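Hi F.,

I've been meaning to write this up properly since the lab meeting, where we talked about keeping a consistent format for the predictions we share between groups. The idea is simple: the sequence comes first, exactly as it goes in, then the structure tokens exactly as they come out, then a line or two of notes. No screenshots and no reformatting. I'm using this chain as the first example so we have something concrete to point to.
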Amino acid sequence: MTDRRRLDISKILAILPHRYPMLMIDRVTQVVEGERIVARKMVSAGEPWCSGHFPSSPLFPGMLILECMAQAGALLVYTTEPFDPNLNVMYYLGLDKVKFRNTVAPGDQLDVVVEVVDHRASVWRFRAEATVDGTLCAQAELMASVVDRA
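Output, unedited:
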């Protein structure tokens, strides 16, 4: 079944366990269950990383771009095969083919597209890209699994 919908911040908060400052997704603009998700992160100058990465010329850290991809992937899994966020959490098992192509700075709108490459049992493989104004900033392949909370 294909389902196209948007997720606002209240729905994202109900699904993901992350909270500020580690909540990276502000909005989901499109979901096609089992296939792809398009999510958005508004990069703000008020975020804690700005003072240290780098003080004279802040850049959004690459690892946080990967975290955006991971959180978008978790939202895609939830919309495809809903799980109880109180009982389950999605853990990432690996990253492959990570490439950083362009910088992301405060004021940028980071768009993240995550597509399912493979899904077997509880393991998911994704291909992800992050762009600003249509310019590719990062890409990666991710592997994850939904597990019981410890």
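Notes:
The mean pLDDT is 94.
Residues 62-80 form the longest helix (19 residues).

If this format works for you, I'll send the rest the same way.

G.
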